Write a sequence for this structure.
């Protein structure tokens, strides 16, 4: 499972740590230590229906049919069964 941080929180943490009045330069290890202190959220990658191997397009419309759920879906939908389509056959 991926760990995600809020970009604004990360930038703020680096900015606050560097408040010395001048230009602050960090080494990679320093940045890693700053970022480790930021709260994380558990996250999983999702596969959008339009990128899924089980998605079949309706004609020229962006929406289509899901072969897992046997129902119409919008291209921007997603579910936990999504698997990336390696072919561009849709």
């Amino acid at each position: 499972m991926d760990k995600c941080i809020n970009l604004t929180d990360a930038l703020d943490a680096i900015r606050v740590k560097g408040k010395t009045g001048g230009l602050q330069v960090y080494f990679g290890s320093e940045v890693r230590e700053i970022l480790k202190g930021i709260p994380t959220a558990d996250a999983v990658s999702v596969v959008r229906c339009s990128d899924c191997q089980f998605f079949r397009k309706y004609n020229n419309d962006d929406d289509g049919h899901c072969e897992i759920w046997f129902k119409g879906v919008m291209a921007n939908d997603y579910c936990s069964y999504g698997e990336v389509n390696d072919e561009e056959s849709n």
Notes: The chain has two helices and five strands. The chain has two domains: 2-43, 46-85. Strands lie at 2-4, 41-43, 55-57, 64-66, 71-73. The radius of gyration is 21 Å.
